[in-house]
Design goal:
414 residues, alpha/beta, Rossmann fold, seven-stranded parallel sheet, globular
Length: 414
């Protein structure tokens, strides 16, 4: 298994270089990894005290951020190195104030693992959720360096729990402690002999709840909403937008405002979406050129605003589950106490299952079901308010993961 894995990594490296000629996202990652070691050499000395945080992408960064912030406070004399595997995380958070150095994680070869840890030499390593790289983790273990995995979520069909998954399985034992999101993940780890497990829940609950303490004001959204009821559709894909546009085009009055924040903000896709809507529609990029309050639909052809935009919503639709692309973050709108609508493919998202069970979230399978549900939420204030409050209570009741993790780290470091 180990030989197959290592050969696979080298093969992947070659394939990515070829694909990068045709794919901008892959190209960013390939070119970015060329700079990793030079950046580390220039910014870290052998005498520096360091902490290393690793996230696969942006979602895991947001998930780990509450813990990162606490470690930044408790380790003011340490340099913090943040790595990403995906360009979608690195490109958006490469200038984050939480870290002193932000780089792409090098591909997981034995040579890269040795070289990387020689440069970084972390006193503590924190991985978020998954992205298990066995060569790097085994090198950590070999050097007896401290490491924890937080907000971990496992499924029984993963390679760690298969008879042939020994090499990947052993990588988990590089972590001195694993904090899982649920009981099932803990049981799966125990089934392979890993005992240092705590069910701490999901750090995202702490992260999203802290959003209520921030200034979420966006003047242009307030102007657009103009005190009307507002439906915000976040992280939508074309499959989601087909349903939403059907509803918007059939809605007979201008009493409701709609905000759509597509996941793909490429110009061609945005223009296609705008042209499909027969109501007065404005793009974020056009807001200075028009009276935004007169438009019924606002399309956000930008990134980084959605969390604050949800604070203006009366109803949220979260994309990704109508098709097979994967459900996006439903906790961000939930914290603002609003009902949420999603598609039908949410089996791998425990928070969605829980909110549906609590009757604060609703799943739809087609345009007809979406229309029925939106009409009910729009026209029935009590129903809308009661369901939304159930989502806020769900967030409140699941906080506390960060406290457990930090308590362990403090004890572990003493």
């Amino acid at each position: 298994m180990q030989l197959i894995y290592n050969l696979g990594i080298y093969f992947t490296q070659m394939v990515l270089k070829v694909i990068s000629w045709f794919n901008l996202k892959i190209k960013l990652g390939v070119n970015g990894r060329k700079d990793t070691f030079n950046i580390l050499k220039s910014k870290i000395s052998k005498t520096d005290k360091t902490l290393w945080f690793h996230c696969a992408s942006l979602g895991e960064y947001e998930q780990g951020l509450p813990v990162f912030k606490e470690l930044r406070k408790t380790h003011p004399n340490h340099k913090i190195i943040l790595t990403f595997f995906s360009p979608s995380g690195y490109e958006i958070r490469k200038n984050t104030e939480i870290a002193d150095v932000v780089v792409y994680l090098p591909l997981d070869t034995k040579t890269n693992a040795t070289k990387f840890l020689n440069l970084v030499h972390p006193e503590l390593t924190v991985f978020v959720k998954y992205d298990i790289w066995p060569n790097i983790l085994n090198e950590l273990k070999k050097r007896e360096l401290k490491a924890v995995l937080i907000s971990a979520l496992f499924r029984d069909n993963q390679i760690y729990f298969k008879s042939y998954g020994g090499f990947m399985k052993m990588a988990l034992f590089a972590f001195q402690h694993i904090f899982t999101q649920d009981e099932n993940s803990k049981k799966l780890l125990e089934s392979i002999g890993y005992k240092d497990v705590t069910i701490s829940g999901d750090t995202r609950f702490d992260r999203v709840y802290s959003q209520l303490e921030h200034d979420n004001k966006l003047d242009f959204i307030a102007d657009f909403k103009n005190d009307k009821l507002c439906v915000v559709a976040g992280s939508t894909w074309p499959e989601d937008e087909m349903l939403l546009v059907d509803y918007i085009n059939s809605y007979e009055t201008d009493a409701i405002k709609f905000i759509i924040a597509p996941h793909n903000i490429k110009t061609a896709q945005i223009l296609k979406l705008k042209q499909s809507i027969n109501k007065k529609t404005v793009l974020f990029s056009e807001k200075e050129k028009s009276d935004i309050s007169e438009s019924q639909v606002l399309i956000l052809d930008t990134i980084g605003l959605l969390t604050k935009v949800y604070s203006y919503a009366n109803i949220a639709y979260v994309g990704g589950a109508i098709g097979k692309t994967g459900l996006h973050n439903t906790l961000e709108p939930a914290v603002f106490g609003i009902p949420i609508i999603i598609g039908q493919h949410y089996d791998n998202f425990p928070e969605a299952k829980a909110m549906i069970k609590n009757q604060g979230m609703f799943s739809v399978v087609n345009s007809k079901k979406l229309t029925q549900l939106l009409d009910k939420l729009i026209n029935n204030y009590n129903f809308r308010n009661e369901t939304g409050q159930k989502n806020l209570e769900y967030i409140k009741n699941n906080r506390g993961s960060v406290i457990q993790i930090m308590s362990f780290i403090r004890t572990y470091e003493d």
